[in-house]
């Protein structure tokens, strides 16, 4: 551990909770607003910030400077995780949205398997026997409802989907993790151009939906629909990988 890292580590260890919140509160608020941009209006951003502050304090208690990551990087992961846990406990999304989301995934999967091409929104709407405008609204509801477990994994693990933690992964699970990453990369690379761009702007550049809409010259609502369509498509293409999370105690 170099001298600068050591001093930073001691400062975080010795600082009071109020000091930590004061120094890094803006990081919590930025992450909260980033997540809130795709959640239902019923989600209170203050609840996310409160959960994030607890994640920040926990990060300060557990940060190890000799692990290679900066405190801000480490804290961001813990803050996001705390907010996502809060969202999961609340589960603000109506059951009908979950049901429609599963139906969209199934429809996309059937169409793409039968045609060998990316399913268009019009094709999916026809398969679901609903108007195209209604389909677009369902996609937006799903995206804002934080329904995609893949999305949640990417937030929780700072952009890298994981099937198991490294500490508990067996050799077989580690091999499967690597295979999943390859399948995910291939699925993302094959997305329609605009959908791939939205995912890049959202997860890599960390733009919110309003900012993405400005880049694409579309409304925030349309940017949300494109994001949602991309996630539906990825879930359909990766459906064979779906499984229950492994209990670390197993």
Overall description:
- The protein is 71% helix and 0% strand.
- It is mainly α.
- It has helices spanning 3-14, 17-36, 45-62, 71-90, 95-115, 121-128, 132-144, 149-156, 171-189, 193-204, 209-216, 220-237.
Question: Tags for this entry?
Answer:
globular, 250 residues, mainly alpha, disordered N terminus, 0% strand, 71% helix
Task: Describe the structure in brief.
With 250 residues, the chain is mostly helical. It has helices at residues 3-14, 17-36, 45-62, 71-90, 95-115, 121-128, 132-144, 149-156, 171-189, 193-204, 209-216, 220-237.
Helix-strand layout with pairing:
Blueprint: H1 3-14, H2 17-36, H3 45-62, H4 71-90, H5 95-115, H6 121-128, H7 132-144, H8 149-156, H9 171-189, H10 193-204, H11 209-216, H12 220-237
Helix pairs in contact: 2-3, 2-4, 3-4, 5-6, 5-7, 5-12, 6-7, 7-12, 10-12, 11-12
Strand segment count: 0
Number of helices: 12
- Estimate the mean pLDDT confidence: 77
Q: Span between N and C termini? A: 35 Å
SS-derived structural category = mainly alpha
Largest sheet: none
The helix/strand series, from N terminus to C terminus, equals HHHHHHHHHHHH
Flag low-confidence runs: 1-12, 147-167, 243-250
**What is the rounded Rg?**
20 Å
